[in-house]
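Task: fold both queries, return tokens.
Query 1:
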Amino acid sequence: MKLNHFLTATAFAAALGVTAHSVAEPNYGRIKKDINVMIGIVKSAFENDSPCDSCRVNISGHYLADQGVVFNVDPGTRYLHYASDVSAFVVDGIADIPDMVTGILSEVESELRHNDIDVDFHVPPPAPEPPGHWGAWEVREEMRDLRRQQRSLERELREIEIEAIHADDEELEVIREREEELARDIHELAQAQEEINEKMKAYANKQKLEEEARRAERDAQKAERLGKIEDLVLSTFCDYSSTMRSVPGDEKISIIINRDGKESNIFVFDQSDLEECDSSKTDIRKSALTYAF
């Protein structure tokens, strides 16, 4: 009899163990469905949200056994930026290209002519610059003209120096006077070029400061947009977290939000923190373990 009781007790304990194990085993299929539903809800929130115009996110989710669900959210701002700012951002880099090409062609044409090679590249005139814009094209043309004059004077000076070798006293005096005149003219041209160089440096510094200001403004706008994206993601999880009812209650819900290639913002929630969450009444961030990584 005792043996029968022992066998019965052993069988009962084994059955309890099997039952406990089956209860603890998560239903991966249901969890996967819950994750996909949550992803769809987040994407739908962005499609219908007017405070964050043109915002879009890529979101994926994975379940880690005994740990919970991890959602990865990528705002995709590397290619979206701002619709109102994209044209200005692109034009900043492209606008100077025709002017650069034209300048190069002018320089090449000038050098070829200097070597008695007759060419004509039909260099187009620059596009009109906006009112009040410093005439960078005109200044470069003026610089090229001064260099051409300087090369011409230097060539004449070399020719006179050769003549001086075979000149008599009377001719040599005239040659020396012309040499001095040419030297003065070359010096004046060099000074004029230096003044233009200073102007161009000042202009380049001004352009640099303006570009830095534009970049700072773009960064501020981007940060503002990322903040809106983050707010919308978190409030959506707060309001619809019951969707993930198949995730074991003692596990975590983690949300990783990519900050455009920089450190990601990571929010880790207990299931209980999200069960009765209402974004209109609760600041969901206060209940999260939050850090950047």
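Query 1 returned. Query 2:
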Amino acid sequence: MQCLFRKPIFPIICDIEGELIVAVSLDDFENQLKNFKLKPNHIYSTIDSKVEGWFLNVEPLIVSPLAIKKKWTQKTLINLYNKSKNSKNDRNIYFEKSNMSLEVVFNEIIELLEAH
């Protein structure tokens, strides 16, 4: 796996067909991707710990900053988690908390994902 321009700040969350995975390094990310049948010529949404948008390109396997959706909002991050297979399987709904920073929400979602 290669990074285009620069490396994301770990941990990261990647949305693979509605299932969210957490990776703590590039090697960890690449190893976890082996558990999925990735679609050729498909781009998967990825978010780093700065809550910056990235994408995973399958062929070749590249992680790059996403120019279209640079920053995520608290609402879109929570919606991503609540609509994910992870949340539906565990019935863990994350409720919006307006008094929390985006980074805190990101870290709490990471904790929920790592717990299961």
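Both queries returned. Flag for query 2: The chain has a mean pLDDT of 89.
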